[in-house]
Write a structure and sequence with these properties.
By secondary structure, the protein is α/β, with parallel strands linked by helices. 24% of the residues lie in helices and 31% in strands. Helix 1 crosses helix 2 (45-53). It binds inosinic acid (IMP) and magnesium ion.
């Protein structure tokens, strides 16, 4: 598995620092709120698990599985929810926990969908951000971002290529030959 990694982009130590920093901000910002951490599976599993342990406020957790589909370039896209939250989010200040903000389409569609359920507030937190890949039509602003990364395919710490590499403890760049063959 390690042979397929070109370089480490975010080390275990750096991930720990990112998690500490973001958890600190959340602990300040959500003091008087009713926080629901909403983990988007599967990519956010490691980030969610580490982050929630550093949150010192009472909070609820939940999980969603969703995929976005774009029929054509003109299409606004649709999101299909495979696993929904178990609770009524109108009671909560919802914070979506994502692995990576890439084109931004999936998160954008998800935010639009969840907004219709009238959460008390709705914000996003992503471990990684690939700004170069952003769809110019997406104006979504994330409240918390761990680290901006270059336009390369990354795996590890939850992120996969064809369901592999999620269990690497760091985020690394996948060698091109692995997915170009
Ligand atoms: P978006 O809708 O283009 O922002 O796609 C977001 C989703 O695509 C993420 O939640 C990831 O599951 C996946 N993704 C995007 N870039 C990468 C990457 O570099 N490695 C692994 N998965 C990625
Ligand atoms: Mg994926």
């Amino acid at each position: 598995m390690l042979n397929d990694i070109k370089e480490v982009l975010v080390s275990e130590k750096e991930i720990e620092e990112i998690v500490d920093r973001i958890a600190g901000q959340i602990n300040e910002d959500y003091k008087d709120k009713n926080l629901l951490l909403l983990c988007i599976l599967k990519g956010s599993v490691c980030f969610m698990a580490d982050l929630m342990k550093k949150i010192t406020l009472p909070c609820a957790i939940d999980f969603m599985v969703a995929k976005s589909y774009y029929a054509g370039t003109e299409s606004k896209g649709e999101i299909k929810i495979y696993k929904d939250v178990d609770v009524d989010i109108s009671e909560y200040d919802v914070l979506i926990i994502e692995d990576i903000f890439d084109s931004g389409r999936t998160l954008n569609l998800l935010v639009n969908k969840l907004s219709q359920r009238n959460p008390r507030s709705l914000e996003c937190c992503s471990l990684l951000d690939k700004p170069e890949r952003r769809d110019p039509d997406i104006n979504l602003e994330l409240k918390y971002v761990g680290k901006a990364v270059p336009d390369e395919f990354v795996v590890g710490y939850g992120l996969d290529y064809d369901e592999a590499y999620r269990n690497l403890p760091f985020v690394g760049v996948l060698k091109r030959e692995v997915y170009e063959n």
